[in-house]
Amino acid sequence: MAQSILFSLSANIATKLGSFSLLELGLLWIGFHEELDKLKDTLFAIQVVLLDAEHKQYKSYAVKE
């Protein structure tokens, strides 16, 4: 009798810990995607600035010298 209670209790704890771990993993995954989106935005902004500088280089004589 005591064994079945302990087994049931341990199974319940394992299930709850597993659910908590999956929730944590899901939150980490969402955070990773948010950071990845921020990085993409930053890299895009850098690309725009570099392309603009390159364009100005070809248009402006002062930048060439």
Automatic annotation (TrEMBL):
Gene3D superfamilies recorded: 1.20.5.4130
GO MF, one annotated term: nucleotide binding
Keyword Repeat in record: yes
Coiled-coil region(s): none
Sorted UniProt keywords: Nucleotide-binding, Plant defense, Repeat
Domain Disease resistance N-terminal residue range list: 15-64
Record-linked InterPro entries: Rx_N
GO biological process, one term: defense response
Source species, domain of life: Eukaryota
Entry protein name: Disease resistance N-terminal domain-containing protein
Organism, as annotated: Cucumis sativus
